[in-house]
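hi support,

uploading two proteins for the ticket. first:
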Amino acid sequence: MIDRSPITPETLAQLGVAKVAYVKPMRSDEITRMFPQAPALPPGLDLFALVSADGMPIMVTDRREDAVANAWQNELETVSLH
């Protein structure tokens, strides 16, 4: 018999933790709100966050290419979020 129970968002996120990362364009104001542990940033900067499948920040940069390169170096498949 096949189990057809729904997968929770938490379980789904854990499936891709070691394989998938998201490149998300963000403003510095959003970085500060979403990741309070991040160092203080000047307001209004356009940045890119590389975030693991479970939502943990990996890195923040001002160039999308740098976020993708970091994912590639860590053998992560990147997906863009808009």
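and the second one:
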Amino acid sequence: MKVLYFAWLRERVGLAEEEVTPPAEVVTVADLARWLAAQDEAHAYAFDNPAVVRAAIDRRHVKPDSAIAGAREVAFFPPMTGG
């Protein structure tokens, strides 16, 4: 699956996107974030406070407990404000 990073997550990881193949036990967005954080120091830094990271699966905002099965794309981004 493709993982996209936006804003300061992209800066911390050092990539705008990457293709990943998580293991079978990675079933939710939160699992994916934890698995990514374990990959290297840059990812660990990006996900050091998962409570402030938001996600979308195939361009639809989702909760951390959302299943990633069948996802083509998972995006991670900081909270957004509008006005």
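thanks. also noticed: Helices lie at 8-13, 29-37, 41-46.
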